[in-house]
Design a protein that fits this description.
heterodimer, A: mainly alpha, 76% helix, globular, B: alpha+beta, Rossmann fold, OB fold (Dihydrolipoamide Acetyltransferase, E2P), 9 helices, 21 strands, 23% helix
Chain lengths: 224, 368
């Protein structure tokens, strides 16, 4: 069992899913309620990581964050080191990789809010922002939990993208899935198994939460 | 202090695929008090409310309440719904399911202090007799209680106008009239302009101060409920207002001195005496007669003031909740409403010969 790798993965997953939740609130509400007819293009871009091989995504990220790219150079000027093969680089890569897992449930939950409730809030004098925080977000709460849990679980288990842009530096970029790969390659099946069991447990727990939320097993209000 | 009359001129067209485009083109006043917006479904009632509330943008027009201009296409004014102070109760009520009744009601009072908000909320919940349910969520309330909370939530904001889109259509009659009484009571002192959409004749009679009849996106009549709905001038309005008998007839003879004319029904050869209308012998007219305005007798009556006594035969008797519908054939088929008691008392049966009695002024003319 590689505890360092497990803790690194948990730290990465927590940070990434938190940032993704913050991104998907405005992005999700724009996709759900916006009026621009070309929104489907943005939805397609957001969903690309679902179908792209992680190596393809990782390859382009490697190029985009490399020391010859504008982003890589800017980062180097600001922080004195490059982005690739660092924890920060891993965070940026994971944000893109897990984006659809956060945005899609949020958009679905926002679209599920009865438009009459949104209109009712407006005619009662509420600004769009107040309507968002008092009506839309609370009613979409199960969707927000789903978004957080799914992006957490997905980031925890990512492998291909991490390998491409993070490499395999212990304590910096060696996540638990890479540690499992290493253990299995070196025939240390016991260690690989213990870490794999932890990931399996996490995945099961995450999906149980998601399905329970969406079956309304727990809701913050009384169902009709 | 009364709120000024809301004045709205609205033009709005819709195009939906190959369907004929629907246009709303109206000019209405909503003075303090209750104005009923009546009309068949698809007449444009909800669209009109949406335009006033700011949920739908008219193509052209002007909506104003006193000095406050809510919309003016020429001046380029279009206030968003949250700045119009036009309260709106939807047919679905749209109570916030995650907030208690109290929090629903105080939602529109964000600009007040917590203490004032609480005081206003408690006061109006008491007026609408739901104060004991303040802590309950909408899902825990009965249909009538939800309706009361929705009305309280809309009225507590002291709006410029209250828009009600068939808010009571789902309720049974008893609960409905209690709520209407409370609404009237609340508004008696405040005199808010209220625009109340319904196609229920009962609600019109219970609330009726003033009716605007809408059909095909146009105002077809305005006035007291009796004038507009008891003598409808349009066929679709007559159908919506519950005239069960709509019959085509030909004018035979005018009797100017008596203020009546004789007509012959197009099906069968029954003749009727009806009020004088602007018509000439040979003209086709369309009559609307309420099923409840026709009497039945088992023997030919005499010594009656009613001028139309027609022999006929009962085709069928269909019991409804509070009345029986008899279909009577006298050349044309008429629907006649009787009380179940009258039906038993006369021992009416299908196939029986009866006499139908119709007052001249129970016959109304309608246009296509």
């Amino acid at each position: 069992m590689n505890l360092t790798a497990l803790l690194l993965s948990l730290r990465l997953a927590a940070l990434v899913s938190l940032i993704l939740l913050l991104i998907s609130l405005p992005l999700g509400s724009w996709l759900a309620f916006g009026k621009w007819r070309g929104r489907f293009l943005i939805e397609a871009v957001v969903s690309l990581p679902l179908v792209l091989p992680p190596t393809v995504l990782g390859f382009y990220l490697l190029i985009a964050m490399g020391s010859r790219s504008p982003l890589g150079r800017l980062w180097e000027r600001l922080f004195g080191h490059g982005l690739v093969f660092t924890f920060e680089g891993l965070v940026i890569a994971s944000l893109l990789y897990s984006l659809p897992f956060a945005v899609q449930p949020v958009v679905a939950a926002f679209r599920g809010v009865d438009p009459k409730l949104i209109q009712a809030s407006a005619v009662l004098g509420a600004s769009p922002l107040r309507t968002f925080f008092r009506i839309i977000a609370p009613l979409a709460f199960p969707g927000l939990v789903t978004a957080f849990v799914l992006s957490f679980a997905h980031t925890l288990g990512e492998f291909g993208v991490v390998l491409m842009v993070g490499g395999n530096l212990p304590g910096i970029t060696r996540t638990v899935s890479i540690a499992i790969y290493d253990s299995a390659q070196s025939l240390d099946y016991a260690s690989a198994n213990s870490m794999a069991m932890v990931l399996l447990g996490f995945a099961f727990l995450a999906l149980s939460i998601v399905y329970a939320m969406n079956r309304r097993v727990w809701t913050p209000w009384t169902p009709r | 202090m009364t709120t000024p009359t809301l004045v709205a001129q609205i033009r709005k067209g819709f195009r939906s695929g190959t369907l004929a485009s629907f246009a709303l083109d109206v000019e209405i006043d909503v003075p303090p008090g209750i104005t009923i917006l009546f009309g068949p479904s698809g007449a444009g009632k909800s669209t009109l409310l949406d335009c006033i509330a700011g949920l739908t943008r008219p193509d052209a027009g002007r909506i104003a309440s006193g000095d406050a201009v809510l919309f003016d296409s020429e001046a380029g004014i279009n206030l968003p719904p949250q700045r119009r102070s036009a309260a709106y109760v939807f047919q679905s009520l749209a109570l916030f399911p995650h907030l208690s009744a109290e929090d629903n009601v105080s939602y529109g009072l964000a600009q007040l202090s917590a203490a004032e908000r609480r005081a206003c909320t408690v006061e109006i919940l008491e007026s609408f007799r739901v104060a004991s349910h303040g802590r309950h969520k909408p899902g825990e309330l009965s249909g009538g209680e939800r309706q009361r909370v929705a009305l309280a939530r809309a009225l507590v904001t002291s709006p410029r106008v209250l828009l009600l889109d068939e808010p009571l259509s789902a309720l049974d009659a008893g609960v409905k009239f209690e709520i209407l009484e409370d609404l009237r009571g609340w508004n008696a002192a405040r005199r808010l302009p209220i625009l109340y959409v319904t196609h229920s004749r009962e609600e019109v009679d219970a609330l009726g101060e003033r009716v605007i009849a809408l059909d095909h996106g146009r105002v077809v009549a305005t006035g007291a409920p009796r004038e507009v709905l008891d003598a409808p001038r349009r066929l679709r309005l007559a159908q919506a207002a519950g005239f069960e008998n709509l019959l085509a007839a030909t004018v035979l003879e005018l009797r100017q001195a008596d203020g009546v004319m004789r007509v012959r029904l197009e099906t069968g050869d029954a003749e009727l005496e009806v009020p004088l209308a602007h018509a000439a012998p040979g003209d086709s007219v369309r009559l609307a007669i309420r099923a409840g305005d026709i009497l039945l007798a088992t023997e030919r009556p005499s010594g009656l003031s009613a001028r139309n006594i027609l022999p006929g035969k009962i085709l069928s008797l269909e019991p409804r909740s509070t009345f029986v519908t008899a279909r009577v054939d006298c050349g044309a088929t008429f629907a006649v409403h009787l009380t179940p008691g009258a039906c038993r008392g006369l021992e009416l049966a299908e196939g029986q010969n009866v006499w139908m009695i119709l007052k001249t002024h129970s016959c109304h003319f309608v246009q296509e």
